[in-house]
Here is the input.
Amino acid sequence: MNTIECINTRRSIRKFTEEPVSHDTVQKIVEAASMAPSWKNTQITRYTVIESKELKEKIAAEATNPFNAGHINSAAAVVAVSVVKNRCGYERDGSFSTVKEDSWQMFDAGVASQTFCLAAHEYGVGSVIMGIFDYDKVAEMIELPETQEMVALVAIGYGAEKPEAPKRKTVEDLLTYK
Ligand SMILES: Cc1cc2nc3c(=O)[nH]c(=O)nc-3n(C[C@H](O)[C@H](O)[C@H](O)COP(=O)(O)O)c2cc1C
Here is the structure.
């Protein structure tokens, strides 16, 4: 698959088969995601792969809405994407580099997450990024270190659906030249 084909054919997958995703495949996906650009190459994004059925069910039941609970329970695994705090957006002396302060850490997590999802797609693994859940509860459930902040959950697995791409805005809507 070439890059444009990968970008164009990746879809958010919300229904999965029962086939597990091997550690070898997860390893390759994270290896590819590690090549994502990051603020001053700080590489703050981390991935916690939740394979335990009990833990997935607990997150689904106690830390998100019924819609996302369905994806989580169907997924082979749920990847908790987190960032190491106090690095991205900062100067060495601890001051902020820009007026966007530490929001660059969310930017970096987004860049890394999309790279993760595209790499997963290349390896035949479906994914859906989820932003709607209780960050503190999930952080506690997975015993996330205090030095990190929860950003997103990504359900992964082999797709049991082939959704159409939701309608996109036109290039004219998106693009401006000056
Ligand atoms: C930051 C972010 C948060 C999202 N949160 C959710 C979510 O909580 N639940 C869900 O089902 N999809 C979620 N999505 C997936 C979007 O709904 C999806 O990307 C969008 O509808 C376009 O569809 P596509 O990914 O198939 O192109 C999220 C996507 C992003 C980037």
